């Protein structure tokens, strides 16, 4: 007869307030949990700083090697493993989508979170990518809910042709607010994850967050069965999706080129 095993799941969240993460990570260590799952690079960094013993399974939009979470993708080498979304690396692809949707676009606003450690490097990458295809990038900072409102007021004054956002968890958590603000100011938004057009944004290009969290769940299960994080290679997405929200396009007065529609993986009507 198979013995029954019970688990207690402790869920702690910060609602986008990164300064709370160290204390929450310390609390999980104090409770002596069996494994920690961390959504996002900043949460993973806080968990890593709190323990070198408890296994940590993360999802990360930033490169986990570049950010120092693990030693390599194939051999993490520590008590951490997880799923990489390679979201930041796809910035040039999202700018290419903007160019195809808005052929006459010249200026794109990028909203970055000053509280996100990788914000400056991510903006720099987008600026370089923009120059390569003739797009000027205007950096706008927003690290809390009131700042998002202010950011879109600034974007309206800048008269940009489109807007995109950074890849950290704060923006994912605020996707509905961001989509609503983009609609209010009638600015097309092209985002890193499919969750944004599902919330009313115009378009996205990137990996599925749901798939990444599913993989993190699989790894968490393997750790609970005795696997060591150091032996579990960092997974990377193999499929990247272009999602278009036609309802939003219509509200913005945009006609999506047939060539873009034909290669879209999902069209929201």
Describe this structure in words.
This protein is an alpha/beta fold and 269 residues long. It has 2 domains: 18-86 and 208-231, 3-Layer(aba) Sandwich (Rossmann fold); 88-206 and 241-268, 3-Layer(aba) Sandwich (Rossmann fold). The chain is 39% helix and 16% strand. It is built from 11 helices and 10 strands. The strands form 3 sheets. A 4-stranded mixed sheet has the order 7-8-9-10. Strand 7, helix 8 and strand 8 form a beta-alpha-beta unit. Helix 1 (21-30) packs across helix 2 (41-50). The model is unreliable at 1-8 (pLDDT under 50).
Quick overview of this protein structure:
The chain is an alpha/beta fold and 269 residues long. The chain has helices at 21-30, 41-50, 91-101, 119-132, 145-158, 169-173, 175-184, 195-198, 209-224, 246-251, 258-263; strands at residues 36-39, 56-60, 80-84, 107-112, 136-141, 162-165, 190-191, 203-206, 241-245, 266-268.
CATH fourth-tier homologous superfamily of the largest domain: Response regulator
Q: Roughly what is the average pLDDT, rounded to an integer?
A: 89
Structural class: alpha/beta
Q: And the CATH topology of the largest domain?
A: Rossmann fold
What is the overall silhouette?
Answer: globular
Alpha-carbon distance between the two ends: 51 Å
Tell me the helix content: 25-40%
CATH class of the largest domain: Alpha Beta
Strand content: 15-25%
Following the backbone from N to C, one meets helices and strands in this order, namely HEHEEHEHEHEHHEHEHEHHE
Total domains: 2
Task: Give the total of beta strands.
Answer: 10
* Unreliable segments of 5+ consecutive residues: 1-8
Order of strands across the biggest sheet?
7-8-9-10
Quickly count the helices.
Answer: 11
Largest sheet: 4 strands, mixed
Rg value: 19 Å
The CATH architecture designation of the largest domain is 3-Layer(aba) Sandwich
């Amino acid at each position: 007869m198979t013995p029954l095993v019970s688990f207690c799941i402790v869920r702690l969240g910060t609602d986008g307030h990164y300064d709370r993460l160290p204390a929450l990570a310390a609390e999980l260590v104090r409770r002596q949990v069996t494994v920690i799952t961390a959504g996002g690079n900043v949460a993973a960094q806080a968990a890593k700083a709190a323990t070198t013993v408890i296994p940590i399974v993360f999802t990360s939009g930033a490169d986990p090697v570049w950010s120092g979470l693990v030693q390599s993708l194939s051999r993490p080498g520590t008590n951490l493993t997880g799923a990489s979304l390679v979201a930041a690396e796809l910035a040039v692809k999202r700018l290419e989508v903007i160019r195809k949707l808005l052929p006459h676009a010249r200026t794109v606003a990028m909203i970055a979170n000053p509280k996100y450690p990788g914000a400056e490097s991510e903006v720099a990458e987008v600026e370089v990518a923009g120059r390569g295809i003739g797009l000027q990038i205007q950096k706008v900072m927003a690290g809390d809910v009131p700042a998002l409102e202010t950011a879109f007021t600034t974007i309206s004054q800048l008269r940009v042709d489109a807007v995109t956002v950074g890849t950290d968890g704060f923006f994912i958590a605020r996707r509905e607010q961001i989509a609503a603000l983009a609609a209010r100011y009638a600015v097309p938004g092209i985002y890193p994850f499919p969750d944004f057009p599902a919330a009313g944004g115009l378009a996205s290009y990137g990996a599925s967050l749901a798939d990444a969290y599913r993989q993190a769940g699989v790894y968490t299960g393997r750790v609970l069965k005795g696997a060591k994080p150091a032996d579990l290679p960092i997974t990377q997405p193999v499929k990247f999706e272009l999602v278009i929200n036609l309802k939003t396009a219509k509200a913005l007065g945009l006609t999506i080129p047939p060539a873009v529609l034909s290669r879209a993986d999902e069209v929201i009507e």
